Amino acid sequence: MLTATPASQAGSRPDGGFLRFCHEALARYGELAQGDLVTHAAAHDAPATDILRFPAPATPTAAPALFRLQGVGKTFPGKHGTVTALDGIDLDIREGEVFGVIGRSGAGKSTLLRVLNLLERPSAGSVLLDGEELTALPAPALRAVRRRIGMIFQHFNLLASRTVADNIALPLELAGVPRARVSARVDELLELVGLTAQRDRYPAQISGGQKQRVGIARALANEPRVLLCDEATSALDPETTQSILELLADINRRLNLTIVLITHQMQVIKAVAHRVAVLEDGRIVEAGDVADVFTAPRETLTRTLLREVIGDDIPPGVHERVAALARGWGSRGALWRLSLRGEAVDAPLLAELSSLFSVRAHLLHGYIDEVRGVPFGSLVAALHGSEADLADAAAWLTTRGVRIEEIAA
Amino acid sequence: MSPEMLDLLGQSLVETLWMVGISGLVGTLFGLPLGILLVITDRGALLQNVAFNRVLGAVANAVRSTPFIILLVAIIPFTRWVAGTSIGTTAAIVPLSIAATPFIARLVEAALREVDRGLIEALLAMGATPGQIVRKVLLPEALPGIVSALTITIVSLIGHSAMAGAVGGGGLGDLGIRYGYQRFLPEVMAAVVVVLILLVQAIQSAGDRLARRLDHR
Ligand SMILES: Nc1ncnc2c1ncn2[C@@H]1O[C@H](COP(=O)(O)OP(=O)(O)O)[C@@H](O)[C@H]1O
Ligand SMILES: [Mg+2]
Q1: Is B153 a residue whose pLDDT tops 80?
Q2: What are the φ/ψ torsions at residue B20 (nearest 5 degrees)?
Q3: Which CATH number describes the domain made up of B3-214?
């Protein structure tokens, strides 16, 4: 099933005029026609508490698909029957984007990434790169394709027997690049990742962050079409993680290189990804623009994962006191979580609410953040007013692009 | 000890070095590729061929479990066919090489298995052929281990070569038996033992030093 945007939601767009909406909608349907952002039907059933969801995402300009996965499945023979690592994966990865895949350990992230260069051969479905079916390629052709797909790893996988420079030179040697060209290219790459001074050291003599830089330089040596990153920052401390992510984002911008990264950390997605797919038990349960998934997560898993980056839990003490208060109000009170994005973040919504309706809002908890230039936030408020007033207030907030979720008192 | 005895000691040392050196070389020539094959044809490996792997492993085990003195005698016809004679130093090289080959193969296999699977993955992802993976990753990464394996092999060949006297192979061990034991010359026996100890020490420490120099982990 496709995540389509009903045109009737045009008026409720929080962050743009009608013309812009039409423009985006056109762009969006254009992509949909290509089978973009395909997820499972179950993922689209909104939670009952959703009074209204955000309008569907405005995706950036539609680039052609670099990778297209159709119905990809992968099973492994295990001790207790077969293990299904991937199940019915449909996915497009566009030229020039940073595509993130997030999920818990064992969700199938690594398998999914390894299917892209056929390190793992899918048990079902097809893997297209630039429209070419990879699963049908004979070994030599597949090796040629792999030379144009860079890959970096959680544990770097550098050769201990080679210096930094010689590690970077390895893929060039494999491709039969003449010696003179190799050394010039290695110098370029060392410069790109900021390791010129470490060129003659061995991997054992450099830090984890530097090792990953070597990994990145090595992956870029043959000027790949795409860079695959398997938990590239999971073995690094937070500061080093940040610097590696900045390097990846920089490479994506400067070289317009497509990057596919898998991670179990939402921070990584937030820092560099344009689009994200949430993987659970081998299936994509949610996918979309990072800004949309962050501001309007549909799945419980997504919310849980998001909680790592945005502490949106109401402190238990506060929750108890307010719940007691709200119970005292009976039908004249409600506990709402208001999700905001774009312009709604800047508007004095609660003040306006009180002046427009006879509703009082007690603000309990809130945060404002920004992802890919889109401000978003969440406010938890206890509201006091008649049922009719609360309904009017909800309707008004909805027109202002606010998503309301009722929280059990 | 008489000058003649010293002469004899020197000559025996040369014979030992010759037997050990050549059989070590031949053993490496065959054992190294066999060790590589044992690793890459294993289940789930680069060029999986389980049947071939089983047969190769069984043959290696069979040769390794045959006591050297029995091997020495059992293959005399083969030795005559290869070396033209079944007596003498050169003839002793044949059974020594045959004993060394599976020994080296197994030790090389163990050294290659130490290479991180992630490195092979990385090379596969780069589009490397199986041959490139062996040359660019498996061998260079396992080199310190392989050097250690060869050191152990040479030391153990020195021990085996003492039995070469049984086919008139000469060498230090033979000298010790014939003069030290049979002619009851304890000082010759002592000299042989001292020279062997020094030889083994020198080889072991040279091998260790080389392995350490090559190891950048
Ligand atoms: N080579 C394999 N053999 C058997 N089972 C595997 C293999 N690779 C992965 N799996 C199984 O597939 C599932 C997904 O694994 P993986 O893709 O590594 O997950 P993730 O990277 O999200 O932690 C897990 O249940 C794992 O045990
Ligand atoms: Mg993984």
Answers
A1: yes
A2: -65, -45
A3: 1.10.3720.10
